[in-house]
Design goal:
- It is a single chain.
- This protein has 150 residues and is mainly α.
- It has 4 helices and no strands.
- Helix 1 packs across helix 4 and helix 3 (79-100) crosses helix 4.
Length: 150
């Protein structure tokens, strides 16, 4: 998610926001689905209010913005500090959104949201690293073809 400091053009910024939003919302929906399955097998019923899927997509978008801002930040901060700031900013966004959109109503619900946040955060990191490896392999293949032609 967070790489070396460099400036991105508009197309790259859009790609970062789109990919991050897609990964974040996919992770959240997957975790919500797991929660629904667990609730179902425990004999309960589970449903979402009409606005909750939209709120998840909206929060996925909001959570992609700190990633873009921290990728472009040129403050000389260490990588660990940048990751901590990134995680903290996303945690604040998710906590506030959870309260506003009523993803939780009590402490146990908030703990569930925190657990989902941590799992999704790890999922997005792993997915981003995986996608970077794929892009790196494509670039290396093109470079090898270029050197073979010379």
């Amino acid at each position: 998610m967070i790489e070396d400091n460099k400036k991105y053009n508009r197309k790259e910024k859009f790609k970062i926001i789109f990919e991050e939003t897609l990964m974040i919302t996919t992770g959240i929906f997957f975790m919500v689905g797991i929660g629904g399955v667990i609730t179902h097998f425990q004999g309960g019923s589970y449903s979402l209010d009409w606005y909750q899927p939209l709120s998840i997509i909206f929060i996925g978008f909001l959570c992609s913005l700190p990633t873009l801002l921290l990728k472009e930040a040129d403050g000389g901060k260490s990588g660990v500090l940048r990751i901590i700031l990134h995680c903290l900013s996303l945690f604040i966004i998710v906590s506030l959104a959870g309260y506003i959109f009523k993803w939780y109503t009590d402490l146990s619900g908030y703990i569930s949201v925190v657990i989902i946040f941590l799992v999704v955060y790890a999922f997005v990191w792993i997915s981003s690293l995986w996608m970077s490896k794929i892009d790196e392999a494509k670039i290396n293949k093109v470079l090898e073809q270029f050197h073979d032609e010379e």
